[in-house]
Design goal:
The protein has three helices and seven strands; from the N terminus they run βααββββββα. By secondary structure, it is an alpha+beta fold. The chain has one domain: Alpha-D-Glucose-1,6-Bisphosphate, Chain A, domain 4. It starts with a strand and ends with a helix.
Length: 151
């Protein structure tokens, strides 16, 4: 497993940010390259995402669960899936810190594990693409959260 991390500031109050990151309906569409998305309940969704890594192209079927923290200051996002004979396992921690009444810092860490043929493409190729896709997910969350009406 490789670990990636980052911080983005969102133009949203902390309560709105928490409501967004704990909603499958809000977070699901933030996945990069979504081909299909189905929300099962407020904290569970499945998705089919497009994957392109070097010469390998295809799709992965993912199942995700969002686990809100009781403190109201963060959540865990766990994603498992596979396709093309490969597996994907992502365990993310999202932490919110208010920086002003209208802005919140979203700090994230993600442990990403890849198995099967995708894992054999070479560590540098995998690492670069995994870092890019993970960072894009949290950038999409930032952009979509700022545009979403308060819940």
């Amino acid at each position: 497993m490789r670990t990636y991390e980052g911080t983005v500031t969102v133009e949203a109050p902390a309560a709105h940010a928490f409501s967004f990151i704990t909603s499958a309906e809000a977070v699901g569409p933030c996945l990069p390259d979504v081909l299909a998305l189905e929300v099962q309940d407020p904290t569970h969704f499945t998705a089919k995402v497009r994957v392109g890594l070097g010469p390998v192209r295809g799709a992965l079927d993912l199942a995700a669960v969002i686990v809100p923290e009781d403190s109201g200051q963060g959540a865990r996002l766990e994603v498992r899936g596979g396709g093309m004979g490969s597996g994907l396992d992502i365990k993310s921690q999202l932490t919110l810190t208010p920086v002003s009444p209208s802005a919140t810092e979203l700090r994230w860490t993600a442990e990403v594990g890849i198995s099967g043929p995708l894992a054999t493409l070479g560590a540098r190729l995998i690492d670069g693409q995994a870092a890019k896709v993970t960072a894009q997910l949290f950038q999409n969350i930032r952009e979509n959260m700022a545009a979403a009406p308060a819940r």
